[in-house]
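Lab notes, practical 5.
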Amino acid sequence: MSSENFFNAIEGQYNNKLPFVLYSKPYKNEVTALLQKENTLYKVEDYSESGFVFAPFDVRKDTFLIPYSNCSELSIDTEVESQANMTSLSFKEADKEIYIRLVEEAKTAIDHDEFKKVVLSRSEKIIVDELNFIQIFKTLLNKNNSEFAYCWYHPKVGMWLGATPENLLNVEGHRFSTMALAGTQTYKGTQHVKWDLKEQEEQQFVTDFIEQSLEAFVESMTLSEVKTVKAGSLLHLKTDISGLLKRNTFSLRQLIFALHPTPAVCGYPKQEAMQFILDHENYNREFYTGFLGELNKKVKIRPRSGVRNIENRAYAYHKSATHLYVNLRCMQLNSTEAQLYVGGGITKDSIPENEWQETINKTKTMKSVLE
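Output from the prediction step:
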């Protein structure tokens, strides 16, 4: 299928007010589209379902699904053409004083031992003359090959786009992988940078939480050395975590919610940080810092090729694969308005002014696709 026909099919789906999702995995040269055949709003009940999942930050709220059984799947190579930039970009600056005051309140709570870390976020509205979601998605692809880029739409929920560097969980058979990603600084031409104690401690909180949360589910687990990685115009600290899951002793739902939300998007300890966020942020994150991706997708596995190729093909089998990502660097589109979401981790060493500036740096990634 040509790129033109592919995106014409997506535009037709949108004009007919039918749900769809477009996405491209990190370092993959392919864009996948799932086009739902009618506009039913499907909800995840127990994570035994199969489809593309779209989950909110607040686990008490509904999680939605585009089921594989009720959609058409299309794909093209990711080498789509660049588009001209959009014009007349204008925006209203978020209230700096409110965010700094929120950081100060969080630091006071940390001083009183209510929690060790909390992730505080804010939203920012961008007004543009015209929002072309296909053009924005193409720009995301061209700018963020190392990230999971997506465009998700349901007429009863709305449209979201993003490019996230953070994997929540991969499960294929009994093998799993995830990551601890935290700490932020602006990329200035090199990844050989120094990290201060605040960022190192923040990343260690995430690593420790994930390791402890997975202990009951795994037979074995391996943690990589901490490394600096680039995501768009930013640098982060990252630890890769992988291993083998115990057989027949857990549900996928239990595993997902043991991790979500991680200290990278919520805080530590989880429940105390979550309550502070719900009580003090004074807005609804909705799907920002939730998760999304392929849930229980059936993939065909073929034995390694060799002399007995014909016999090998006869023994090909299917297994279930789940690939979930944390919904960061995202926006919600509404008519000629884009709602951007951004946040940062607060610890005892946080400097409120610096935390504000970190949110400014993070919004640049998404603003750049609207310019």
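Observations recorded by the TA: The mean pLDDT is 89. The radius of gyration is 21 Å.
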